């Protein structure tokens, strides 16, 4: 396997999990496949299934991203919030650079409510 375009697009954990599950399913159908690729695929899917992305779907991600349009966040910060939905003010401060200057306390509260509504936590 070879990387053809570095940073062609950023993927959220949900998209990575979907791609790897498809890859895993297709490799199981083939009798002989590289063992290391199968191991990495298995371990990554296993890890991602224990994260919040297990309960995500394209509609919930779109609803969350649409809700974030009202806030001064970068694409990378939005991606990080999809991958690790913020549940506390501290998590937003860790994700968004200079959040105290860019987001009001009300904005932070609304983002947390939006994350809880659109991207429910995985109870594991």
From TrEMBL:
Gene Ontology MF terms in the entry: nucleotide binding
Location(s), subcellular: Cell membrane; Nucleus
Occurrences of domain RNA polymerase Rpb4/RPC9 core (ranges): 1-122
Q: Which domain of life is it from?
A: Eukaryota
Q: Which Gene3D superfamilies match?
A: 1.20.1250.40
Stated membrane topology is: Peripheral membrane protein
BP term (GO), one: transcription initiation at RNA polymerase III promoter
Q: Which UniProt keywords apply?
A: Cell membrane, DNA-directed RNA polymerase, Membrane, Nucleus, Transcription
- What InterPro entries does the record tag this protein with? HRDC-like_sf, RNA_pol_Rpb4/RPC9_core, Rpb4/RPC9, Rpb4/RPC9_sf, RPC9
Provide GO CC annotations from the record.
plasma membrane; RNA polymerase III complex
SMART domains reported for this sequence:
RPOL4c
Q: Does the keyword RNA-binding apply?
A: no
The UniProt entry's sequence similarity note says: Belongs to the eukaryotic RPC9 RNA polymerase subunit family.
Q: How does it assemble?
A: Component of the RNA polymerase III complex consisting of 17 subunits: a ten-subunit horseshoe-shaped catalytic core composed of POLR3A/RPC1, POLR3B/RPC2, POLR1C/RPAC1, POLR1D/RPAC2, POLR3K/RPC10, POLR2E/RPABC1, POLR2F/RPABC2, POLR2H/RPABC3, POLR2K/RPABC4 and POLR2L/RPABC5; a mobile stalk composed of two subunits POLR3H/RPC8 and CRCP/RPC9, protruding from the core and functioning primarily in transcription initiation; and additional subunits homologous to general transcription factors of the RNA polymerase II machinery, POLR3C/RPC3-POLR3F/RPC6-POLR3G/RPC7 heterotrimer required for transcription initiation and POLR3D/RPC4-POLR3E/RPC5 heterodimer involved in both transcription initiation and termination.
Its annotated function is as follows:
Accessory protein for the calcitonin gene-related peptide (CGRP) receptor. It modulates CGRP responsiveness in a variety of tissues. DNA-dependent RNA polymerase catalyzes the transcription of DNA into RNA using the four ribonucleoside triphosphates as substrates. Specific peripheric component of RNA polymerase III (Pol III) which synthesizes small non-coding RNAs including 5S rRNA, snRNAs, tRNAs and miRNAs from at least 500 distinct genomic loci. With POLR3H/RPC8 forms a mobile stalk that protrudes from Pol III core and functions primarily in transcription initiation. Pol III plays a key role in sensing and limiting infection by intracellular bacteria and DNA viruses.
- Name recorded for this polypeptide: DNA-directed RNA polymerase III subunit RPC9
